[in-house]
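Lab notebook page, bench 4
Experiment: in silico fold of construct C2
Operator: M.H.
Input chain length: 91 residues
Purpose: comparison with the prior construct
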Amino acid sequence: MLNHLFMSNSQSFHSYNILFWVIQIVEVVSGDCVVVADDSIPYGSPLAERRVNLSSIRCPKMGNPRRDEKPAPYAREAKEFLRTRLIGHQV
């Protein structure tokens, strides 16, 4: 089945270099955004942590306290739901 997913224009599966890496969730910014850390990159490098927006997820906005914007209804609940399931896990 994997062979069919990566085949296009009569190229074989073996012609692709597929990279897999393990990252850890270190922060949940909102219900649709997390910060991940790559352990293979040295600590302190700008590439060690990246902000990742989850695709096809629409959640209430957290607001901005600097601009006196309040969070939308259920924004905190969406963030907490994601945090309890992902924080500290390797993916």
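Observations: The longest strand covers residues 23-30. Residues 24-55+68-91 form one domain.
Next step: discuss at group meeting.
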